[in-house]
Amino acid sequence: MDNLFSIGELSKYQNISKQTLIFYDKIGLFRPAYVDPNNGYRYYSSQQIDYLDTILIMKKIGFSLTEIREHMQHYNIDSSLIALRKQITAIDRHIQELRLIRSRLLHRCTQMENAKIYKEKENPVIIEKMDAQYILFHEVEEPYSLREISIATKKCFADSFQKGLPIFFQCGVVVPSRHIIEERFTEASFAFLPIEETNQVSNIKRLPAGECVSVYHVGNYLSIGRSYQKILDYCKFHSIQIVSDSYEFCINDYITTYDENEYITKIMFYIKTSED
Questions:
Q1: What is the pLDDT of residues 162-190, one digit of tens each?
Q2: pLDDT per residue as tens digits for the range 16-30
Q3: Contact residues for 178 (Cβ-Cβ < 8 A; gap 6+)
Q4: Nearest CA among 121, 207, 114, 198 for reference residue 160
Q5: CA distances for 83 relative to 53, 54, 61, 220, angstroms
């Protein structure tokens, strides 16, 4: 038709699918100038091409389709300035969030790389000074099986995602010293996620700075007893006194491998030093 573009032509010119144009029509965002009553074909005027450009640009900037539809009902320079300034604020907030996510991913990668180094050294027992850190925790219910541990871990992740908490993308568990004495090495009492300091929730614990003994366990979780025995034997031989429960940090787990034989878990205890 004269001075009108078919939906196919508009799709080609704007590099947008026909299905998208049909969807925009259905939600009242971008309706054709004319619909042929005989066959239902959609046609668009040349003026509408500029209107569609505006929609696509706003979508690229990050506006939702609902926001675009509401804005374009009656928009002018003043309302556009308000909308664009508001979006700049949203973009800045998103950039900050992405920077935090990047730093936490980098932290995870560094841990995995360090663990691979120790793995190649046949998992030596390590004495190290730890900085203070924080964990978001949930209690594991009896009988402390892997099922209950998984549920507690999921609660931690659910809390963090729902409340936007500054977690690191890592999980872990606390195994009570009494369970270790009884060789119940896989029966944790708490599941946790390492997290930055925050007062948004109450189930946060600060792990103090201090000297620790640790070892990296390589293999599926049910075999972790052998690494516990290794670290306990080391402490006994060197007369090192363990003064805490066990903190296990998952370095390589289901998030980063499908093969349980590749799992890497850092086992860590606080120890008593001559300065204590």
A1: 999 999 999 999 999 999 999 999 999 99
A2: 999 999 999 999 999
A3: none
A4: 198
A5: 17, 13, 11, 53
